[in-house]
Amino acid sequence: MSALNIKQGSTSHSAYELRDPNGDIIEQHTLAVLVDNESGVLARVIGLFSGRGYNIDSLTVAEIDHEGHRSRITIVTRGTPPVIEQIKAQLGRIVPVHEVHDLTVEGPSVQRELALFKVTGKGDARIEALRLAEIFRANVVDSTLSSFVFEMTGTPEKIDAFADLMRPLGLMEIARTGVAALSRGA
Length: 186
Fold this sequence. Notes:
Elements: E1 7-8, E2 27-36, H1 41-52, E3 56-65, E4 70-79, H2 81-92, E5 97-102, E6 109-120, H3 124-135, E7 139-143, E8 147-154, H4 156-166, E9 171-176, E10 180-183
């Protein structure tokens, strides 16, 4: 992330905040949407975002109830508070949507992402990549004489930090799953 960080919930992580042209603060929110697992549902959810010019920073979806044919879509998006409220209301009106939860405002949540990093290099760069991977608890899942593929699970910020450190060491490619999130507690 650059010097302009997103205000997350009610806690700012930077002296700078992104604002829209009207001066409203742009916040990042994580939404959990429980839907019927049927064809076309994901397209309808994505269509809601694209049709209204909303951006999706991260999107994950998987079936969570095989017998009930339900899936959970986790969406990370950003906007002013009125825009976020509008997104939640419009999602709730889509017929196969059963629940919409804003994990950002409903209390503490756990967010994790899986990422794979391909790093090429030789000599000292290779040794430094392995040292940093150990510090970040990244696993080597593939190795050749000229490259490594590291696997890491963590917060999006941890994934970003590891990528930033690997770039000068020969980072060639990244694959990220997107955020999976659950609220904490009972």
